[in-house]
Structure formats: structure tokens, C-alpha cells
Amino acid sequence: MQIDMDLVREILLKVEAAPPTENLITLTDEFQGFSKMAKISEHLYVLGEGQAGFLEIKEGYRKNGRIIYHAERLTWSGHQFLADIKSESRWKIVKKKIEEIGGASLPVWQQIAAQMGAGLIENALK
């Protein structure tokens, strides 16, 4: 499976916006252009504590032999990364930078997004 960074961002945004009593499975119909529950569930697993560490996830139920995961909440790392990519304009710039270098791993995405945020703060303090 390829990681879809637009879906990663969409998941983080949805989890942050969800009331504390809901989980992501109830929100799957709201994803723009991401209709496959298996794809969303796989991304949840990858974004969980044992992988990227952006989400606290729980194993849900099995559907057609696949485990469906759901998100409970963002972790501190998830909040930090989302803060750096939440702005649509900043997200577009980060994506453009990644395209210019021909793709990148998640830590590179995080580094570029964080550097952009730091640059904005530095400029604001001048």
C-alpha cells in the first residue's frame, strides 16, 4: 500500500474535529474522495502508535477478513504535525516542495512542514 498524504492530512483533520465520544469509523462517509474503508483503515493503522505515532487507535471489528481500525484521538506528535500542515496554503507549499525533490518519507514531510512553520514565526518576529 502506498501512503496517500492527502488522506493522512484528511484523517488528522477529521480526528481533531470529531467530538471526543466519536470514532473515525462513524466519519468515513465524510471523507472527500476517499471512499474505501479498507484504505482508510490501513492508513489509521500506519498512523497509530506502533508506526507513525500520530493517533491512538483501537482495533475494531473484522470485515471480509480485514481488521478495521478506528481512531480515538491525536497524540502530541499528531497535533504537532497537523498544526504544521493544517493551513491549506501551507499544505500546498509543502506538497510542492516534496514534489520538487521527487517524493519523501514521512519524517521528511514533518521536517519540511516544521521548517516552514519556524520560518513563519521568525518572519513574524522581525
Question: How is this structure best summarized?
Answer:
The chain has 126 residues and is an alpha+beta fold. Helix content is 53%, strand content 14%. It folds into 2 domains: 5-79; 86-125.
Give an overview in words.
This protein has a two-stranded antiparallel sheet. The protein is built from five helices and two strands; from the N terminus they run H-H-E-E-H-H-H. The model has no long low-confidence stretch (mean pLDDT 81). Strand 1 and strand 2 form a beta hairpin. It has two domains: 5-79; 86-125. Helix 4 packs across helix 5 (106-125). The longest helix has 20 residues, at 106-125. It is globular and about 55 Å long. Helices cover 53% and strands 14% of the residues. It has 126 residues and is of the alpha+beta class.
